[in-house]
Amino acid sequence: MMILSACGTSQETSGGEGSDSKEEKKVLRVATEANYAPFEYQDKGEVVGFDIDFIQAVAKEAGYEVEVVNVGWDPLFVEVKDEIADIGLSAITINDDRKQTYDFSVPYFLSTNKILVPEGSDIKTAADLKDKVIAVQTGTTGQEAVDSIVGENNPKVKKFENNNLAIMELNSGGADAVVADNTVVEEYVKNNPDKKLIVVEDEDSFDAEYYGLMFPKGSKLKAEFDEAINQVLDNGKYTEIYNEWFGSDPDVENLKAQQ
């Protein structure tokens, strides 16, 4: 990934070989929170993940280049709102509350919250979370889901800057469960069998969620990226990236039906 110095500003890049003229390409600043494997995380100082491969493919279709910057969860919302960043990208669920402040692309990923617990836990459903100590990432739909189950401002809900810290709290015995996006907790269990954790699913308590690219209100980029997302959904590139990261095929028709 090219590391560029743009901060939401335009830069000129030359066209390909044989081009009679120079093509202007805007380098878009993409703000993320790179502690959310497998969507975005740091590997040897580089931000990688499913979201990163996805945004690069979509930006290429739209005729842009991107600079992905790891700023943190709360700061990325500030950057997009203040138009410091052109796009927010961090497995961000589209919901009515966020749509009051931001514009979102068409959905690009289907997710749901699940519960991460130690083997042998008596937590079998979301209802069993009551009276338990629960670790969540603050400001996420996981926190919202937990608040709806155990009540807002419940002192037994521990809020952390990112899911890595929430899971560390579970592993250290400081929490009975973590609630987070299914892909995140499933990936953690797969990659850390020594921790002896399992994932609990409760479809009746956790709604399906859809991720989208987040833009400042009124951004002209939304229409361009909606078109580009549909192009990668239709031409097989999305399925290729999804397969590489998750080892299965995505439900592309379900995603397109949400538009």
From TrEMBL:
Domain Solute-binding protein family 3/N-terminal: start-end pairs: 27-249
Q: Which domain of life is it from?
A: Bacteria
Identify the SUPFAM superfamilies for this entry: Periplasmic binding protein-like II (SSF53850)
* Primary subcellular site in the record, as a coarse category: other
Annotated ranges, domain Ionotropic glutamate receptor C-terminal: 27-248
Q: Where is this region: Disordered?
A: 1-25
Q: Which UniProt keywords apply?
A: Lipoprotein, Palmitate, Signal
Signal sequence extent: none
Where is this protein localized, as stated in its record?
Cell envelope
The UniProt similarity line reads: Belongs to the bacterial solute-binding protein 3 family.
Q: What is this protein called?
A: Basic amino acid ABC transporter substrate-binding protein
